[in-house]
Design brief:
By secondary structure, the chain is mainly alpha-helical. The protein has helices at 2-26, 53-75, 82-113, 116-119, 125-143, 164-192, 197-223; strands at residues 31-36, 42-47. The chain is flat and about 65 Å long.
Length: 224
């Protein structure tokens, strides 16, 4: 199963480059809508080769992740260590993120070909993007409390690394913060229906993670 998951990770990281190349060389015009304002109106046109930007970012992110993953596994005591188990959980998260980024990449290509879809008052493009990001936050939030103390993932704060109990308190609070941020992001996308949902997302992240950090510190300090 782990091997199959790694294959899916590899495929989901390189597929955007492949289908973007097909779109660029066989479907898109030489000049495409390259940027959209918060109101959904294209405010810049550019070369179709700019379509490779997002697939390139996806590829670089995955290369960096695989390098960090390899280093973390190599530095672990053995394959059954907590770090190894946490990495398997993170693999699942990264795979979900990759699938969502693949969907986002497809939407970008569609908008480059049909920019009028974004200017439609009833367009659901922005709510869909907000929903993708929101679901990603929720998945991360649900997984955080399931991890054990490790040097790879989670709220690795100095005051919560000394015991499983303290780790659980901090990462449960962090998980709730991520789920809250995800829900707020989805709601912001539905309310604004434009790029302004990012403001709601950032505010939710900053406020919820700050509250989670302060709360977990206070609880752990009290227990100590």
């Amino acid at each position: 199963m782990k091997r199959f998951k790694q294959i899916l990770l590899l495929l989901s990281s390189v597929l955007p480059t492949i289908y973007t190349a097909i779109a660029v060389f066989f479907i898109l015009s030489d000049t495409v809508a390259a940027h959209f304002g918060a109101n959904g109106i294209p405010d810049r046109y550019g070369s179709k080769y700019e379509a490779f930007l997002l697939p390139g970012i996806i590829l670089v992110i995955n290369i960096v992740y695989f390098l960090i993953r390899k280093f973390a596994l190599k530095s672990s005591a053995d394959e059954d260590s907590r770090t190894a188990r946490s990495i398997d959980i993170v693999d699942t998260v990264v795979l979900c993120v990759n699938l969502m980024l693949n969907a986002l990449c497809v939407m970008v290509l569609i908008l480059m070909k049909h920019p009028d879809m974004m200017t439609d008052a009833e367009s659901i493009i922005m709510p869909v993007i907000a929903a993708v990001i929101g679901v990603m936050f929720i998945v991360i939030g649900c997984i955080m409390p399931k991890t054990k103390p490790n040097s790879f993932v989670g709220m690795r704060l100095s005051w919560c690394m000394d015991s499983d109990e303290h780790w659980y308190i901090a990462n449960r609070a962090g998980g709730i913060a991520m789920v809250t941020s995800g829900i707020a992001t989805i709601i912001s996308g539905l309310i604004f229906r434009n790029g302004y949902y990012v403001v709601g997302m950032l505010l939710a992240l900053i406020i919820s993670l700050t509250v989670a950090t302060v709360y977990s510190y206070a609880i752990i300090k009290k227990k100590k």
